[in-house]
Design brief:
single chain, alpha+beta, Immunoglobulin-like, 2 domains, 6-stranded antiparallel sheet, 3-stranded antiparallel sheet, 5 helices, rod-shaped
Length: 259
């Protein structure tokens, strides 16, 4: 609206300057002018107003005629300033549009816990941690890579500084379309015997990072940290392996962030 008003104002002003500065053309006298020219009535307010307006318009026209070059130069400067303001406004609009698209249309990856799943067929009871990497954005996430780590601790409020969050070995190079979820699992691990004896005192952390290209910018990342209370361990019948259903998973208060 502000740009449109500025355009209208400049257009009208320039048109007025051009019309007034144009050399006078012979115009037949209007009947009202002839009537007022020969009128001797001092109380004819219409003629007094018409005479005053005519005098003012002639003075303005004479002033413009005497300063045509200066007015033309000022008009050129005004046009240049307006063109610069319009260019700047368009540049800012394009930049804001690009920023809006980058925020609203890009890919966003979220990582959800899918539980601790028992592994079958091994010589010893083992398990894996499963995660779901979901694209909750509007563009495909490309070059998706991930790293999943496991940590046991008796501190259920372990700070992020106590977890090694540096990406050491990223895996994969995948594509996730909008609305899709890709499942992945950690390396195989086993529960320490000490933990099995004291299940209620241990916590299992599943944490790591997912990196990807969001459609506009590479090297986007989502850090995640899921927490499982080991008191919810459920042994699998007949195999001796143990797992924790996803319904007992928590998003830890530390280690979850994204850019």
């Amino acid at each position: 609206m502000r740009t449109g008003g500025l355009i209208s104002f400049v257009t009208v002003a320039l048109a007025a300057v051009i019309v007034i500065a144009t050399p006078e053309l012979p115009v037949p006298p209007h009947p009202d002018f002839m009537e007022c020219h020969y009128s001797t009535d001092p109380n004819n307010h219409y003629c007094r107003f018409l005479t005053l307006a005519t005098t003012i318009s002639r003075e303005v026209a004479d002033f413009i005629q005497r300063n045509r070059d200066l007015i033309a130069a000022l008009a050129a400067v005004a046009i240049a300033a307006f063109a610069f303001a319009l260019w700047r406004s368009n540049r800012d609009a394009r930049r804001d549009t690009d920023r809006f698209l980058r925020i609203t249309q890009r890919a966003y990856l979220a990582v959800e816990p899918l539980g601790i799943v028992p592994m079958r067929g091994g010589r010893r009871p083992t398990s894996v941690a499963q995660i779901g990497i979901e694209n909750v954005g509007l563009l495909p996430a490309r070059e998706v890579r991930w790293q999943i780590r496991i940590a046991f601790d008796t501190d259920d409020q372990r700070p992020a500084t106590g977890l090694d969050l540096r990406p050491v070995r990223l895996e994969g190079n995948h594509l996730i379309v909008p609305g899709a979820t890709m499942g992945q699992m950690s390396d195989i691990f086993s529960f320490p015997e000490a933990m099995i004896e004291e299940l209620k005192s241990y916590v299992l952390y599943v944490y790591g990072v997912v990196t990807y290209h969001d459609g506009f910018q590479p090297d986007r990342s989502t850090h995640f940290c899921h927490r499982y209370e080991c008191r919810y361990l459920e042994p699998e019948r007949g195999s001796g392996t143990m797992g924790i259903p996803a319904r007992y998973a928590l998003y830890h208060r530390f280690g979850n962030r994204a850019d």
